[in-house]
Write a structure and sequence with these properties.
2 domains, 8 strands
């Protein structure tokens, strides 16, 4: 008979019962933790796999030119954004205060936030859109997945913004990692119409901000 079984038989029934309870409880905690991690990070995993495998049906830039109606993409023609390279598409909530946590948290449950005090497409100045910045993985997967793949964008990539039933095109010209306290990018630089997209960097932290700067395409 194995030694561990002899030791087990020597333990009192009460201690055996407690042992089984503790063992079962521990296994349950481990299983719960695994399930929690899977559910929390699944949106991130899904975004990465979709981007790498190119399985998601994409609408190319040429299709956008031919079909300018935002509704074709399932977007609100009043204000929305579409980034073909990373297949990011979302409605935009206008005039959201980036300094008011409660206000932008509510807005980001519905879409991407447009920073109050910055301009709108067609006005010839800065347009600033941002996604959630959070130190919680749960909130990250809930709010930030739309802009999660912004880091994949490079110079020359196109961004489409729909506003008041019109389509505006922008071309990425710069990618910047800025300090989380740097608010200078919210100020118009007087260089004509350009778009700034902001998300957290690294994803799920509040350490820095990843900024994508895109200039308006003039035909």
């Amino acid at each position: 008979m194995p030694r561990h079984w002899i030791i087990y038989q020597a333990i009192s029934p009460l201690k055996r019962f407690i042992y089984h309870i503790v063992r079962t409880f521990g296994a349950g905690l481990i299983a719960f933790a695994i399930v929690g991690i899977v559910f929390s990070y699944y949106p991130i995993f899904e975004e990465e796999v979709s981007y790498r495998s190119d399985r998601a049906p994409k609408v190319g830039f040429g299709d956008i030119i031919a079909k300018s109606d935002a509704k074709i993409l399932g977007l609100n023609p009043y204000f929305s954004i579409y980034i073909p390279k990373i297949e990011a598409r979302q409605d935009v909530i206008p005039n959201v205060n980036p300094g008011n946590f409660n206000e932008y948290s509510r807005a980001l449950q519905e879409g991407i936030a447009h920073a109050a005090g910055t301009n709108f497409p067609g006005q010839g100045k800065l347009i600033y859109l941002f996604s959630h910045s959070t130190d919680s993985p749960l909130n990250f997967t809930r709010y930030n997945a739309v802009f999660y793949l912004l880091r994949k964008l490079e110079n020359g990539d196109r961004i489409t913004v729909f506003f008041l039933d019109k389509r505006y095109e922008y071309e990425v010209s710069q990618k910047v990692v800025a300090d989380a306290t740097d608010t200078s990018w919210l100020t118009d630089q007087g260089i004509g119409e350009y778009l700034v997209l902001q998300t957290c960097d690294p994803p799920g932290t509040t350490w820095n901000r990843l900024l994508i700067i895109a200039k308006m395409v003039v035909y």
